């Protein structure tokens, strides 16, 4: 930029000098009486000089910055080498061992027989007379009025204390009211000696009998 400004200033100085010379010549011509045409031609020739300004030289762009050098390649370390120990040597036996002896299981001995009872088991025995368990006075009124009769067979379970715990009709008289009356009366009135087991201890047992229902005369 400084060089271009310096050339422009020199051209302007030259132009000013030329213009000053022209004015001097014009003045001299007027004074000396030179021909006006000659001066005019000289003036035209001088004034038509084109002064071209020198174009400033284009500055070259600065060189590009150096590119960064590429990073060095990454070298992976070699994989570790697994050196396993040699497998143990396999020793082969010259002969196979003999098979174990065959054990045949024996049957378990039978359990010993139970000891012989010291007492003979006995069933329950009535303490009071079975005829007192159901009397003619206990005859159901409806059955007596309808002149119905029959025999009811029953079985009772007696506990270890000699009491009747349950009663079942094993043979019906053909009339449900007579059967029901039989079990109710026996359960309420019958008393027993309890049954005994093989050691003579009281235990539960059963007793069977029958009640004959007959209308009294």
UniProtKB/TrEMBL annotation:
<protein>
    <submittedName>
        <fullName>Protein TonB</fullName>
    </submittedName>
</protein>
<keyword id="KW-0997">Cell inner membrane</keyword>
<dbReference type="GO" id="GO:0098797">
    <property type="term" value="C:plasma membrane protein complex"/>
</dbReference>
<feature type="compositionally biased region" description="Basic and acidic residues">
    <location>
        <begin position="139"/>
        <end position="150"/>
    </location>
</feature>
<comment type="similarity">
    <text>Belongs to the TonB family.</text>
</comment>
<keyword id="KW-0812">Transmembrane</keyword>
<dbReference type="GO" id="GO:0015031">
    <property type="term" value="P:protein transport"/>
</dbReference>
<keyword id="KW-0653">Protein transport</keyword>
<feature type="transmembrane region" description="Helical">
    <location>
        <begin position="13"/>
        <end position="36"/>
    </location>
</feature>
<dbReference type="GO" id="GO:0031992">
    <property type="term" value="F:energy transducer activity"/>
</dbReference>
<feature type="region of interest" description="Disordered">
    <location>
        <begin position="192"/>
        <end position="217"/>
    </location>
</feature>
<feature type="domain" description="TonB C-terminal">
    <location>
        <begin position="124"/>
        <end position="217"/>
    </location>
</feature>
<keyword id="KW-0472">Membrane</keyword>
<keyword id="KW-1003">Cell membrane</keyword>
<keyword id="KW-1133">Transmembrane helix</keyword>
<dbReference type="InterPro" id="IPR006260">
    <property type="entry name" value="TonB/TolA_C"/>
</dbReference>
<dbReference type="InterPro" id="IPR051045">
    <property type="entry name" value="TonB-dependent_transducer"/>
</dbReference>
<dbReference type="GO" id="GO:0055085">
    <property type="term" value="P:transmembrane transport"/>
</dbReference>
<feature type="compositionally biased region" description="Pro residues">
    <location>
        <begin position="95"/>
        <end position="127"/>
    </location>
</feature>
<keyword id="KW-0813">Transport</keyword>
<feature type="region of interest" description="Disordered">
    <location>
        <begin position="50"/>
        <end position="154"/>
    </location>
</feature>
<feature type="compositionally biased region" description="Polar residues">
    <location>
        <begin position="201"/>
        <end position="211"/>
    </location>
</feature>
<feature type="compositionally biased region" description="Pro residues">
    <location>
        <begin position="61"/>
        <end position="88"/>
    </location>
</feature>
<dbReference type="InterPro" id="IPR037682">
    <property type="entry name" value="TonB_C"/>
</dbReference>
<dbReference type="Pfam" id="PF03544">
    <property type="entry name" value="TonB_C"/>
</dbReference>
């Amino acid at each position: 930029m400084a060089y271009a400004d310096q050339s422009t200033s020199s051209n302007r100085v030259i132009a000013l000098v030329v213009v000053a010379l022209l004015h001097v010549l014009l003045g001299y011509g007027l004074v000396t009486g030179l021909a006006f045409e000659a001066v005019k031609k000289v003036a035209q020739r001088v004034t038509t000089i084109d002064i071209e300004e020198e174009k400033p030289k284009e500055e070259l762009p600065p060189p590009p910055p150096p590119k960064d050098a590429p990073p060095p390649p990454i070298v992976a370390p070699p994989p570790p080498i697994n050196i396993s120990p040699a497998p143990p040597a396999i020793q082969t036996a010259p002969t196979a061992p003999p098979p174990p002896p065959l054990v045949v299981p024996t049957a378990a001995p039978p359990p010993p027989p139970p000891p012989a009872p010291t007492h003979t088991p006995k069933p329950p025995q009535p303490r009071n007379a079975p005829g007192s368990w159901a009397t003619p006075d206990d005859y159901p009124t409806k059955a007596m009025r309808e002149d119905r009769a029959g025999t009811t067979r029953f079985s009772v379970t007696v506990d270890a204390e000699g009491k009747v715990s349950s009663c079942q009709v094993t043979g019906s008289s053909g009339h449900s009211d007579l059967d029901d009356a039989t079990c109710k009366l026996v359960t309420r009135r019958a008393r027993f000696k309890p049954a005994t087991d093989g050691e003579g201890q009281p235990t539960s047992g059963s007793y069977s009998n029958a009640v004959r229902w007959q209308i009294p005369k």
